[in-house]
Amino acid sequence: MQEQRLLDSLAFLAKNCNDTPWLGVTRFSWSAADRKARRYISAELEKIGITAHTDGIGNIHGIYKGKTDKPAIVIGSHLDTVKNGGNYDGTYGVAAALEVLRSLYDKNHIPERDIEFIAFAEEEGSNFGNTCLGSKAITGQISENDLKSIRNKDVSAWDLLRQFGLQPQNLIHEQVDPQKILAFLEIHIEQNEILYKKNIPLGIVTAICGMRLYAIRIEGRSDHAASPMLGRADPMAAFAEIAYSMEKLWKDGVLPEDFSCTIGNIRCLPNAGIVIPSQVDFTIDIRHIDIETLEKGWKRIEAMINAVQEKRNIRLTVERLSASGGTAMAEFVKNTFAQSARELNAPVHYLQSGPAHDAASMGHNVPVGLLFVPSIDGLSHCPEENTSPEHLILGAKVFENAVLALAEQK
């Protein structure tokens, strides 16, 4: 592989395919910045003789042909970011996968099996709050009706795809065929501080935590801030009680110690300093490695929410926005990563992934593997997100060797 070319690709995407170059990286799927990134990826694939094609949800595909029609190796990650994110989340996996194909082309090497590149759309869920939408769409976890019902305040997912020039009606014919795929491999920054604190350059993921995202709406009665406290139907007070009580469930041991619950988004109406709100909308994100424990934990949180509703004069609705994760990595892929690391004398640490990744969605249909490199101070989803060039390069080399080892299997 060409180390500088890998780093240059990351720098180009961060600088030139970014709606907020003054503050981190903002590249939502189906945006102007996303369109620039797509042109770059397609052009780079074209340079090595691969004609990219885009499916109905916006995933970019490219196939490096092998000698046979045996089940292929699929590699990639996501192009989109959160608002004001960093240079590497998702993008590193895309650039590393692209570099694998470039390296094969440079050597004029034809592997035994096809290697398919995918740059996934909408992994972050920034447009609609539904994570891994691109990978879910091609693994049968999102239907046409789902895309029509998923919406933000302005537009449905279906209509946004059509406005961007995509053809979501074709997704029914663009599903992953498990019979034609040996494994999906992804490399990503860790988004935690485990590897960084241990000073270990590589992490082999054993499983991806299950994740559930819920939207909660509390409706009360708006009034002047000078109105009497007695008799109020204040949705913000109800929200505060729910937020405090959810954390207390964890502190009191009702939720397991390794259970995560987070309020990540909040909006109130009319959002005026001298007015009691009429409505508060917020999200709750819950995570655990065991799906049964995850669902039981949500039932306890939901019971608490319902208890708050019963004792306050408010209306409350709950909607599940997305579900992902709870995916074990394939043993033979983990072993291949480990062997590739040994060949480069690189220490590894086995760990679980809290964040969801496209590997989790793909893992519903095919064997998958996920490799991590450290994030400095564990930071991610922020402008300060950073990984040393040495770790980016080492991870890409181990990833490349693992991909080739599997692609050469007869």
TrEMBL record:
Residues 210-311 form the Peptidase M20 dimerisation domain. Keywords: Hydrolase. It comes from the Bacteria. The keyword Chloroplast does not apply. Belongs to the peptidase M20 family. PANTHER family: ALLANTOATE AMIDOHYDROLASE (PTHR32494:SF5), ALLANTOATE DEIMINASE-RELATED (PTHR32494). This is M20 family metallo-hydrolase. The lineage of its organism: Bacteria, Pseudomonadati, Thermodesulfobacteriota, Desulfovibrionia, Desulfovibrionales.
